[in-house]
Design brief:
By secondary structure, the chain is α+β, with helices and mostly antiparallel strands. It is 25% helix and 13% strand.
């Protein structure tokens, strides 16, 4: 659900204060504020966004403005789909590389 336009974007005040205080090349900014919107002032900074277990590095670019920090730090880890067909595909993919 998007935020009401009259309320404006939500940016964590502590996070914004850290961004304004620090230079982009001073190192990453550690944050738990996954719901904070990426503002134009954050472009060029690297954030360490918490995903519930680890901190994922996120380098902010101009295309990310307007999105949330949590969108770039997935909380679930996809392993692979299993089954007989998957094993056959993996075996085919591995055999040509072994022949070279």
């Amino acid at each position: 659900m998007s935020r009401s336009l009259k309320k404006g974007p939500y940016i964590d005040p502590k996070l914004l204060k850290k961004v304004l205080r620090q230079k982009p090349d001073d190192g990453p900014i550690k944050t738990w504020a996954r719901d904070s919107m990426i503002a134009p002032e954050m472009v060029g900074y690297t954030f360490l966004v918490h995903n519930g277990k680890d901190f994922i590095p996120v380098k902010v670019t101009e295309e990310m403005v307007g999105h949330r920090l949590g969108e770039f730090s997935p909380t679930r880890k996809f392993i692979k789909h299993g089954g007989k067909m998957q094993r056959e595909l993996e075996k085919k993919a591995a055999s040509p590389t072994a022949a070279k």
